[in-house]
Amino acid sequence: MILKTLLADLFPFCASSIPADFEDGDFGFVEDGESCTLISYSGAGGDVIIPSVATKTGGDASTAYTVTSIGNLAFRNCPGLVSVTIPGSVTSIGDRLFAYCTGLASITIPDSVTSIGELAFFRCSSLASITIPESVTSVGDSAFRACSSLVSITIPDSVTAIGDRAFWGCNSLVSITIPDSVTSIGDCAFNVCAELAFIAIPCSVISIGEDAFNSCSSLSSVTIPGSVTSIGARAFENCKALKNVTVLWATPQSVGVSAGVFENVNLAGLTLNVPAGAKTLYQMHEIWGQFGSIADEI
């Protein structure tokens, strides 16, 4: 996956190698029975409304196809794109769909969409907010990576996992709501979200990936629920604004904590809040025992 991300950085202009079966206006489509997939856009940008029906003309005949998906790279590197409206007939958004659309400020995703592809909004640096509809069940790795103007986002309770690098480099992100349907937070999911001051991890989460909150330099407090069984290496590295960490395991042995989880954080100046009666157990732990103050009043 790291290689795929690097290739996206190195080759942002690579278009789909699939030729269009027909064109309708500024859009190119591939047929699939009575439906079709939008695979290319040749317009100048601005405010774009994707049609729900595309018409193929030839000679005296014309055939109408329902637009059900938007393919990989369809709008890649279109800096003039300002807003996009996706029709209710579409169910999937492809990989790197809007990658490098640096002017994209607004997008409407209908509640027919069930999946958002990898790197779908990669480096959409003007996108300040987005609403993911309740129909979406999967958000691809790096889907919103480097959306540097993104301030807030709400993830619906239909999503079960936050992918690797999903919000990496969203350095304007102030708040995010993670629903209690999410069971895993991927590697580097919120890496370098420098303005993120608080995050609520729901009791459904089982695993927190490596570098998940690395370099969240404004993060001042975090509560880790008792449902979490593993925390990856460097998960909270460089979170130098941390003041309070609350953990809800009855014993520290209930969770696997990788080395360096709080690398470059002055634990001696932090308060660790633990369940009542568990203070001594945490004081004896090789990682949790490094906290300057441990309170067991939960």
Question: Any descriptors?
Answer:
298 residues; mainly beta; Leucine-rich repeat, LRR (right-handed beta-alpha superhelix); 2 domains; eight-stranded mixed beta sheet; five-stranded parallel beta sheet; 2 helices; 24 strands; disordered N terminus
Gist?
This protein is mainly beta and 298 residues long. 5% of the residues lie in helices and 29% in strands.
What do you see in this structure?
This protein is mainly β and 298 residues long. The protein has two domains: 16-150, Alpha-Beta Horseshoe (Leucine-rich repeat, LRR (right-handed beta-alpha superhelix)), CATH 3.80.10.10; 155-163 and 178-187 and 195-298, Leucine-rich repeat, LRR (right-handed beta-alpha superhelix). Helix content is 5%, strand content 29%. It contains two helices and 24 strands. Strands 1, 2, 3, 5, 6, 8, 10 and 12 form an eight-stranded mixed sheet that branches. Helix 2 (279-283) links the parallel strand 23 (271-273) and strand 24 (293-295). The longest helix has 9 residues, at 2-10. The radius of gyration is 22 Å and the shape is elongated.
Largest sheet: 8 strands, mixed
CATH superfamily heading of the largest domain: Ribonuclease Inhibitor
Helix/strand-derived category reads mainly beta
> Helical segment tally?
2
Might you state the CATH topology name of the largest domain?
Leucine-rich repeat, LRR (right-handed beta-alpha superhelix)
- The top level CATH class name of the largest domain: Alpha Beta
Gross CATH architecture of the largest domain: Alpha-Beta Horseshoe
What shape does the CA trace take? elongated
What count of domains describes the coordinates? 2
